[in-house]
Amino acid sequence: MSELVQDGGRYFALNAYYLNWLIYDAFTVFAIFAVHTMTKERHASEVKLAYLMSIVNMSAYLAMHFLAFVYRHQTHWFYDFYTVIVNTTAVLISTNFILSWSNIKVRQCISSYR
Fold first, then answer.
1. Do 37 and 73 form a contact (C-beta atoms < 8 A)?
2. Which residues are 23's β-sheet partners?
3. Which in 31, 88, 89, 96 has the greatest CB count within 10 A?
4. Kind and range of the H or E run holding 5
């Protein structure tokens, strides 16, 4: 998305980096969903929460793209809100998987002693 685009003999840079992040998140969600579907794995609650948080992020990216690149707002109330949303969802996803992994290890350790 940030490559040079040719328009009638002229080149211009399409710096739509919010769309790049949206595409990255969409590809990640699709790839995880495809792997789970192909391997017939059950979608764990942690993965479902990661899907939900990624969709929240994708919505924020799309809103920022429209505000910054389509409507060309220099400042908007959503800019400050966007930062909080994206950082909070990233921390929630990471914490969710870290706590899930440590719970699995604890359960394996407890079950092996019984």
1. no
2. none
3. 89
4. strand 4-7
Strand locations in the chain, DSSP E? Answer: 4-7, 10-13
Q: Which of 64, 59, 51 is nearest to 93 (CA)?
A: 51
Its pTM surpasses 0.90 = no
CA dist., res. 96 & res. 92, Å (int):
6
Which residues, including other chains, have CB under 8 Å from residue 22's CB and lie 6 or more apart?
A: 58, 61, 62, 65
**Average pLDDT over the chain, rounded to whole?**
80
- Residue 11: band (very low, low, confident or very high) from pLDDT cuts 50, 70, 90: very low
Give the tens place of pLDDT for each residue, 55-81: 999 999 999 988 887 888 888 889 999
Backbone phi, then psi, for 7, in 5-degree steps? -130, 95
Question: If you count them, how many residues does the chain have?
Answer: 114
Instruction: Count CB-CB contacts under 10 A for residue 90.
Output: 13
